[in-house]
Structure formats: structure tokens, C-alpha cells
């Protein structure tokens, strides 16, 4: 697929999604006409916030789209509270409108009330310890992070990662509300060392290499409307390759063809996200589409010229008994010669039950579906049971993209501590639907997606 065709496809997909998600009548919650005195509106006399221990009050007030001494719709108040939930800093966020007396003359149908917001804060200054096992390999991550640095809703962190026999280090810093706006900016730097195993068309091991990568990147993400965000990213990568930490069999097979050449790239990416996933404790709700176009060019100093187009949709729905339906569809295509920039799918984080990086190519699609339901649901502990199905197709030829390459189904268990930010332990057991399952058990931290 040529770069021109990919650009045309991205533009058409983005236009279709804008039409799909744009409000058809009226305005979105929180975007109502300013000053409209409609029946059922509230004159917000005061705003109080209860339950803050570490977080500065302005962090919560900055999320609100209603102000003291102003009239607001109930929809605007609910949107404000949902924005506080979506920061991820609180286990629970609830609000109450308490009628008050006021000397202000109010239009007919408008009542005066105090907006009382109560929160239950999470612990956000935390060590990182994650162990994932799946696809015949494992990933160990150790570090520390804080998504609410000194109570100011700024994220900082660093980690050591061991993937198989390879070691990596990362550090990051981000600000979700730069200049007091809904503008997120961040930087990260690190070394990524990762072993790849290559397979032939019959699924037999055909070689492999250790990728040694240095990377530094930055991004800006702007929320234009509650349902529309764009992101501009710039990343530099420098890649080197070696036979280190390969098994004798894989090393012998790879030496017959040699290692990929050392390379570097400056990658520019433009993304758009439509829709929103709302968060309430461990439950998620909503739909989000995303489209991303990335490009590296020899004329701008990169070793290779290539283009990638990625698209995806995630849907979460809260059902009775605090259960959650979670679905993910993703696809990607590219004009890619450098093997390390191709798409790799496998059991560690995409299709459970298969060897890690089992499937590789320049074009892919991926589908995941989970139903999650808790048997224990308390303030401190949630035990969540999962039924899942995964499927994928990947090819070096775009014309073969519809072909199914791997599919699995199975059951899993999640151990969640709601008061601790991001504390989710996961175990899954996969059974084959299509293809040969080689690693049925998958362990990890966090939800699979």
C-alpha cells in the first residue's frame, strides 16, 4: 500500500468517525449554551470538595466546567464530576446538590443549590512491580511512579524492564493540564533491549536477533471537545543488533543470513482520538476510536523511509452485577523494509496462548473480547472473573490480510486493589480456536487491554 493510499484511507476514516461521533442534536454534556436559563437548571451557589488528603483543591476545580455564582445544567454538573473521575486519582467521586437560600433573583425554573463533591483518594506514589508471562517468554518490570506528584496531578516515573534475557530502562515525565488547559505534554527517554524470534510460514523457528535501541520522544495531546482529541509526537530511535542472549539454534539460523544493519530514524506521528472511555473505580464505560499516521524519511536524516497507518476502536460497557464488557479491534498497515519496525503479534500482549512474536508482517488486524464479572467487590479488594476470546490476522501482503492466523479462547482471574492506583494482578488460561497453542498460561499486571 503506497503512502498516498494510506493518507487517503486515513482521511476518509477520520471523516467517517467525526460524522459518527459528532452530536446530532443539541450539544454534548458540558457544552451547553452559556447563560441559558432553562427549567431544571441549577444556580451553583458554592462548590465544596470533601475527602482531599494529598491532592490540591485546584486540581479538582480545574476539571469542573461549572463555576460558583453561575447557572449550569445538570448535564454540565455530571460532566464535571465525570472529568474528575477520569483523572484516575480517585477510587470514588460522588456529588450532591443541596438546596440553599439565596438573595439573587433567579429565573423561573432555576433553583439555587450548593454543589458538594466527595472523593476517596487512591495512593498514587507507588513502587512498580509487574511480572508477565506468556507466549514462551516473560517480562519483569521494577520501578516507581507518581501520577499526582506533590498533589499537583503531574506524572513522573522510571522503571527497569527485563524481557526474556534482555534489560531495558525507561524514564518519563508528563503534565495532563499544561498552562491550565486540557493539553497534555510529555517526554520520555530510555533504552530498549529486546530479543526477537523469527518464524517461517509453517511456524518453525527461522532465526532471531537482539535489538538494542536508544529512544527519546515527546508529544502534545490537545482535547478540543470532550469527544475529540489530537496528538502530535516526535521520536528518535537508534537501533543496533547482536547475537547476544540467543539460543545456539536461533543464533546458527540467523548467522546464515546475517544481522540487520544498524539504523536510526526520526519518526513523526499525528493521531486523532474520537469518543471517550469513562472511568468509575475499576469499571469502564464508553467507546473510543483512534487513527494514527507515522512517517520516517531518509531526506530528514533517517536510515529508512517508511509509513505506518494504525486504526483501532475500544468499547467498554458496564452491565448488571458490576460486570464489564470489554472489546478491542485494531488494524495496521505500512510500507516497511526495516524488520524491527514491522508488526509483531503474540501471546504476551495480543493473542493469548501463542508464542511471543509468533506472527509478523506489514499488515495486521486484531480482535479481543472479554466479559469481566466480580465475585468479591469491596473497597480494598475486588476478585474479577474473565471469559475471553482473541483473534488476529497478519501478512506481508495486503491482499492476504483477511486470512486468520491465530485465535484462542479461555478464562481468567483478576485480583484488584481499588485503593492502589493500577494494582491489578492477572492470570489467563487459553485454549486453541485456530492454530497451535504453545503457551496456554498468561500472567501479568494490569488488564490485558
TrEMBL record:
<feature type="signal peptide">
    <location>
        <begin position="1"/>
        <end position="28"/>
    </location>
</feature>
<keyword id="KW-0472">Membrane</keyword>
<dbReference type="InterPro" id="IPR010827">
    <property type="entry name" value="BamA/TamA_POTRA"/>
</dbReference>
<dbReference type="Pfam" id="PF01103">
    <property type="entry name" value="Omp85"/>
</dbReference>
<dbReference type="Pfam" id="PF07244">
    <property type="entry name" value="POTRA"/>
</dbReference>
<keyword id="KW-0732">Signal</keyword>
<dbReference type="InterPro" id="IPR000184">
    <property type="entry name" value="Bac_surfAg_D15"/>
</dbReference>
<keyword id="KW-0812">Transmembrane</keyword>
<protein>
    <recommendedName>
        <fullName>POTRA domain-containing protein</fullName>
    </recommendedName>
</protein>
<dbReference type="GO" id="GO:0019867">
    <property type="term" value="C:outer membrane"/>
</dbReference>
<keyword id="KW-1134">Transmembrane beta strand</keyword>
<dbReference type="InterPro" id="IPR039910">
    <property type="entry name" value="D15-like"/>
</dbReference>
<feature type="domain" description="Bacterial surface antigen (D15)">
    <location>
        <begin position="151"/>
        <end position="433"/>
    </location>
</feature>
<feature type="domain" description="POTRA">
    <location>
        <begin position="44"/>
        <end position="122"/>
    </location>
</feature>
Amino acid at each position: 500500500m503506497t503512502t498516498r493510499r494510506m493518507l487517503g484511507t486515513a482521511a476518509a476514516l477520520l471523516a467517517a468517525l467525526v460524522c459518527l461521533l459528532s452530536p446530532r442534536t443539541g450539544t454534548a454534556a458540558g457544552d451547553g449554551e452559556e447563560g441559558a436559563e432553562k427549567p431544571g437548571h441549577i444556580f451553583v451557589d458554592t462548590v465544596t470538595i470533601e475527602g482531599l488528603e494529598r491532592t490540591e483543591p485546584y486540581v479538582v476545580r480545574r476539571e469542573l466546567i461549572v463555576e460558583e455564582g453561575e447557572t449550569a445544567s445538570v448535564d454540565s454538573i455530571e460532566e464535571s464530576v465525570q472529568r474528575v473521575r477520569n483523572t484516575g486519582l480517585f477510587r470514588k467521586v460522588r456529588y450532591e446538590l443541596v438546596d440553599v437560600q439565596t438573595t439573587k433573583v433567579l429565573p423561573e425554573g432555576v433553583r439555587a443549590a450548593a454543589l458538594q463533591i466527595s472523593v476517596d483518594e487512591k495512593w498514587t506514589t507507588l513502587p512498580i512491580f509487574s511480572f508477565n508471562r506468556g507466549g514462551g517468554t516473560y517480562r519483569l518490570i521494577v520501578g516507581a511512579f507518581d501520577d499526582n506528584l506533590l498533589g499537583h496531578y503531574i506524572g513522573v516515573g522510571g522503571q527497569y524492564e527485563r524481557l526474556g534475557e534482555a534489560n531495558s530502562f525507561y524514564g518519563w515525565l508528563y503534565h495532563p493540564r499544561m498552562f491550565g488547559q486540557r493539553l497534555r505534554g510529555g517526554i520520555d527517554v530510555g533504552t530498549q533491549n529486546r530479543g526477537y524470534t523469527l518464524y517461517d510460514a509453517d511456524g518453525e523457528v527461522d532465526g532471531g536477533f537482539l535489538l538494542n535501541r536508544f529512544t527519546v520522544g515527546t508529544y502534545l495531546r490537545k482535547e478540543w471537545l470532550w469527544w475529540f482529541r489530537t496528538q502530535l509526537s516526535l521520536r528518535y530511535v537508534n537501533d543496533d543488533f547482536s547475537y547476544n542472549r540467543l539460543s545456539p539454534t536461533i543464533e546458527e539460523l540467523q548467522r546464515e543470513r546475517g544481522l540487520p544493519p544498524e539504523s536510526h530514524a526520526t519518526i513523526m506521528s499525528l493521531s486523532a482520538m474520537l469518543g471517550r472511555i469513562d472511568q468509575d473505580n475499576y469499571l469502564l464505560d464508553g467507546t473510543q476510536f483512534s487513527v494514527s499516521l507515522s512517517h520516517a524519511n531518509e531526506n530528514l536524516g533517517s536510515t529508512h523511509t517508511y509509513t505506518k497507518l494504525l486504526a483501532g476502536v475500544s468499547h467498554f460497557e458496564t452491565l448488571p452485577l458490576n460486570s464489564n464488557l470489554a472489546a478491542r479491534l485494531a488494524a495496521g498497515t505500512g510500507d516497511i523494509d526495516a524488520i524491527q519496525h514491522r508488526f509483531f503479534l503474540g501471546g504476551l500482549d495480543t493473542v493469548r496462548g501463542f508464542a511471543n512474536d509468533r506472527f509478523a508482517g506489514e499488515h495486521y488486524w486484531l480482535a479481543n473480547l472479554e466479559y469481566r464479572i466480580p465475585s468479591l467487590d469491596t473497597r480494598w479488594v475486588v476478585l474479577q472473573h474473565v471469559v475471553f476470546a482473541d483473534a488476529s490476522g497478519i501478512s506481508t501482503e495486503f491482499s492476504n490480510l483477511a486470512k486468520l492466523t491465530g485465535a484462542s479462547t479461555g478464562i481468567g482471574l483478576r485480583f484488584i486493589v481499588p485503593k492502589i492506583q493500577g494494582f491489578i494482578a492477572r492470570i489467563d488460561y487459553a485454549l486453541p480456536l485456530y492454530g497451535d497453542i504453545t503457551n496456554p498460561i498468561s500472567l501479568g499486571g494490569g488488564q490485558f487491554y
